[in-house]
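Title: Prediction job returns without error message
Component: structure pipeline
Severity: low
Priority: P3
Assignee: unassigned

Description:
Job completed but the reporter wants confirmation the result is attached to the right record. Sequence as submitted:
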Amino acid sequence: MRKYIIVLMILLGVILALGFSQEELKENVLTLNDKPVGFGEATTGGAGGKIVTVDNVNDFKNYAQVQEPYIILVKGVIDTSKETGQVNIASNKTIIGVTPDASIIGWGVYLKGVNNVIIRNLTIKNKVENPKNDAITVEASQNVWIDHCTLSSDMVVAPEREKDKDKVDALLDIIKGSKGITVSWNIFENSWKCTQVGSSDNSTIDAEARVTYHHNIFRNTNSRNPSVRFGTVLRYCI
């Protein structure tokens, strides 16, 4: 009997050591103290700002678009489908989902000419068929961290839908020389076009782009997994 107890103790020790490592725990439990790696490592988002909770589009827009730093906790579904376009996000913001259904559904979000934005733990889904609608657009911005998000659209990738592929844009466009960007631990799914660095083959300003992709999953996507026109991009995918 004593021999069996010793064996069970050894097996339990192995399971605890290999199955529940501290590294895995840190990847699965998100905190406001987490830090990005790669080109976006200097990003601090809304650190030092007030912490607010939002559960509707009006409050979300109010806090996301003011100039002061904010940590915005998203609770439930933010329906942006009645907006006229993507929701602009100002500098120095942390936007993080805190419920299992935390999401932005309809139009996506737009980071233009901003600095220091963190978007984490959210589902952002394109439900508006419009060629200018990305789940997230990062334009001429720096220090951005997009982490543990699910980015998707209703664009089913099937041969019969190829004629409709330009009705929506990509899930994540990083353009106009954006730099200091880290895209980590995200799921990209259900979109004909996925993610790209560089707005066109002639946009040489994108040579300044500095983007890190790591530990992202791409499923049911057709192209731009990712696509890189100009710039320096580090990519690690699973």
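Comment from assignee: result matches the submitted record. The CA atoms of residues 165 and 192 lie 6 Å apart.
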